[in-house]
Amino acid sequence: MLATRLAGLVIILNLLDAVWTLCFVEAGVADEANPLMSSALGHGAVSFMAIKLALVSLSVLLLWRLRHRKSANLALYSGATAYSLVVAYHLANAHHLVSALS
User: Fold this and answer.
1) Computed from CA positions of residues 40, 76, 93, 18, in that sequence, does the dihedral angle turn out positive or negative?
2) What is the pLDDT of residue 89?
3) Domain of 55?
């Protein structure tokens, strides 16, 4: 049950991260730091979203299928924690986005 909740949380937080990243990059106040995702972003927003969501979702699916292993649960917990921090960072810097759009 915990693994299912963590998996769902990682997917939702990944979606929020993707949307916030697109907003910040399109407003010109940030760059994509991940070289793989930066390359995907160079092919457009749709490609960026598709690749980001697919890679994380497939990884989460694999970890969820291995949820009987302690290491998979630890990885899901770590992923949820990491994405929570990333989304918190986006929110803490939202004033830059608002300033750029005004």
Assistant:
1) positive
2) 96
3) 2-101
Two tokens, residue 11: 């997917």
* Spatial distance between the Cα atoms of 15 and 9, rounded to a whole number of angstroms: 10
Q: Decide: residue 83, CB within 10 A, 0-12 exposed, 13-18 middle, 19+ buried.
A: buried
Can you read off the two tokens belonging to residue 6?
A: 């963590």
Q: What pLDDT does 101 receive?
A: 80
The whole-angstrom separation of Cα 81 and Cα 10 is 9
- By 3-state DSSP, what share of the chain in percent is helix, strand and coil, each rounded to 5? 85, 0, 15
**Tens digit of pLDDT for each residue in 1-31?**
899 999 999 999 999 999 999 999 999 999 9
